[in-house]
From TrEMBL:
The record marks K146 as: Lowers pKa of active site Cys. Substrate binds at R73, G74, G75, E76, V77, T78, Y79, H80, A149, L150, G151, G163, L164, S165. Pathway: Protein modification; protein lipoylation via endogenous pathway; protein N(6)-(lipoyl)lysine from octanoyl-[acyl-carrier-protein]: step 1/2. One of its GO terms (cellular component) is cytoplasm. Its EC number is 2.3.1.181. Its main location: cytoplasm. This is Octanoyltransferase. GO terms for biological process: protein lipoylation. InterPro entries: aa-tRNA-synth_II/BPL/LPL, BPL_LPL_catalytic, Octanoyltransferase, Octanoyltransferase_CS. Catalyzes the transfer of endogenously produced octanoic acid from octanoyl-acyl-carrier-protein onto the lipoyl domains of lipoate-dependent enzymes. Lipoyl-ACP can also act as a substrate although octanoyl-ACP is likely to be the physiological substrate. Gene3D superfamilies: Bira Bifunctional Protein, Domain 2. Keywords: Acyltransferase, Cytoplasm, Transferase. It is found in: Cytoplasm.
Amino acid sequence: MTSPTFPEIKHLGQADYDSTFAAMRAFTDARTPDSRDELWIVEHAPVYTLGLGADRGHLLAGATQIPVVQTDRGGEVTYHGPGQVVIYLLMDLRRNKPGGKLYARQFVHKIEQAIINVLQAYNLVGERVEGAPGIYMAGGDHKGAKIAALGLKVRGNGCTYHGLSLNVAMDLAPFSWINPCGYAGLETVDMRTVGAQAKLSDVQQQLAEELVRVLATNE
């Protein structure tokens, strides 16, 4: 097996969800032990995506205005739209950790840490919530509100796709038309709502670079 290499960061710009989903699966189908890992940065038009175990009952009144796509990631229903950082992690977990395999739980922890670190750079404090993947606000008027979501597919050979979303400056109304990640009444915020004025392109690049850094360390 080849030695670990840093993932290549690819900017896809604004891209259709369905075609991106198909491209992720095709990339993963075709990759070999020598294929370089990749991070895909993308901004989607409004779309709801459903995880494998998602309950369509979490799509509420108003959700009919937005397309719904069934995916093969874990998790429940989530929303992607303009003003949100989406990064897909096309990784081979067997070679990401110095000295051995990176397990899925460690992988999730590292992704969440990268998000926390980027929020901290904007003077925002995010935290994990046990049993609820993603990042939530740790204090202030919006304590407990979700600001980032996480959903992954890990194949039996250790290769991953899907990834994370971090809300930067969005129309948040579509989150009110679902039970985000299956939680009724869960408040969802973006960085703008909690006081951080940030350019989407800046946060996209910062988060991608922080993911590369955290994945290459023992943090």
